[in-house]
Design brief:
- By secondary structure, this protein is mainly alpha-helical.
- The protein has a single domain, classed as Growth Hormone, Chain: A.
- The protein is built from 16 helices and two strands.
- Helix 4 runs antiparallel to helix 6.
- The two termini are about 25 Å apart.
């Protein structure tokens, strides 16, 4: 049973996209401020990198709670609560005067930031089925994709006339505005009759059942490693943009992050657009194959480019990354909807576990891998290729297992909630 929203589901796309944006905003907006924050708080590059990894670890840990909580008490209530906590945490970040305090409030930001993305996916699957769900997921992905492109640009613009705490005050205003918009415009899509009890023992049992499903493992791993190829560059953006990329022989400046993020997010948005337009015309399996092919081609081009140049130049150095983002955007809706369709009564839990795996991977990339490889363009290119190859390997494993990734089913309620191999 699903609720009948008070407005057209397709009109929810801007709001759901904005809700998914505020998590990435809190990562990417502060990138241009890394040198200033590090100087004022006496933190080196490695210490500043922990402002990302601490946020992502907290995000990952709490992600296993957001979805099941929304299954138990409703989607809207959980989103509003998360937005309120994020707003207060952003105030704390703006007022921080030392690195430990900033890290503590970054953790609180991470604990609350996942509600928009994780619960929003469940909302999409609550209100739409089949190809319509793929179209809405793609529309939300297009809006969501704007965040990493404009966030560092906004951060650099703010630094042009103010200091780094103003970036966090911007996040306060953005999340407060989202709270009001959610309160006024988001219907409750998970009615009381469809809710599950949030008993810890039941939650643990459900999580173990989902995790034990080999098909979930393969699909989630394919999506996680596929995005990892892109996140290697996102997590390394401060070093990649400010220290490695060149424009007419000079280093890029703090207000020039757009040279990296705009082409990358342009590729992601184009991929999401193609995915949405292809719904019902190209099978999910075929579309995913095209996406993985683009990711593989991008990896080869990236390696080749870095073999022949000593200093990466814009825009050429970021074009393979843009192609990779295009492929990721083609694959993502197919894998995500396939996972959600496996558990029609536990969509929140399935979404949480999928997000948890991806976030743990991203936290390790940001906190461990990126500091080790971000100083060399070729090291970044090799790491991205490795992630793409592993993702493709899991995808091929899924195909050979005899379970073809389907286009979203017409009525997910017809599936058993513990559909297994």
């Amino acid at each position: 049973m699903t609720a009948t929203p008070a407005r057209s589901p397709r009109r929810l796309a801007p709001l759901l996209g904005a809700l998914a944006m505020f998590g990435p905003f809190s990562i990417d907006t502060i990138f241009p401020a890394f040198p200033e924050i590090g100087s004022q708080l006496h933190a080196n590059t490695l210490a500043m990198q922990q402002t990302i990894s601490a946020y992502l670890i907290a995000y990952a840990l709490m992600s296993v709670v957001h979805g099941p909580l929304s299954d138990a008490v409703g989607r809207k209530r959980v989103i509003l609560g998360g937005l309120a906590v994020f707003t207060l945490a952003s105030v704390g970040c703006a007022l921080s005067r030392d690195l430990p305090t900033l890290l503590a409030f970054r953790v609180v930001q991470g604990l609350s930031a996942g509600v928009g993305l994780i619960v929003g996916r469940a909302v999409i699957r609550d209100v739409l089925h089949g190809h319509d769900a793929q179209r809405l997921m793609s529309q939300v992905s297009m809006i969501f994709g704007i965040a990493p492109a404009i966030a560092p640009v906004i951060g650099g613009w703010i630094l042009g006339w103010s200091r780094w705490p103003t970036i966090f005050w911007f996040l306060v205003a953005f999340s407060a505005l989202l709270w009001v918009a959610t309160w006024l415009a988001l219907p409750e899509t998970h009615p009381p009759a469809a809710r599950l009890k949030a008993h810890p023992r039941v939650l643990l049992r459900d999580y173990l059942a989902i995790l034990a499903n080999p098909r979930f493992q393969r699909l989630a791993a394919a999506g996680t490693f596929n995005f990892g190829a892109l996140f290697v560059y996102i997590a390394s953006a401060p070093a990649f943009v400010l220290e490695l990329l060149r424009l007419h022989g000079r280093h890029l400046r703090q207000n020039e992050f757009a040279w990296f993020f705009v082409p990358m997010i342009g590729g992601m948005m184009l991929g999401a657009f193609v995915s949405g337009r292809s719904a019902g015309k190209i099978t999910g399996q075929r579309l995913a194959q095209m996406g993985f092919a683009c990711c593989g081609g991008a990896a080869v081009l990236n390696i080749a480019y870095n073999l022949f140049v000593s200093e990466p130049q814009v825009p050429w150095a970021v074009l393979p990354i843009s192609l990779n983002a295009f492929g990721v955007a083609l694959v993502f809706p197919i894998l995500t909807l396939a996972i959600l369709d496996m558990y029609p009564r536990q969509r929140g839990s399935a979404s949480s576990l999928q997000a948890f795996g991806s976030l743990v991977s991203n936290a390790l990339i940001a906190g461990v891998l990126s500091p080790l490889i971000s100083g060399k363009p070729m090291h970044l290119a090799i790491a991205a290729m490795a992630f793409s190859l592993v993702a493709w390997g899991f995808w091929r494993w899924e195909l050979h297992a005899g379970r073809r990734v389907p286009a979203p089913v017409a009525d997910a309620a017809a599936l058993e909630p513990t559909d297994r191999m």
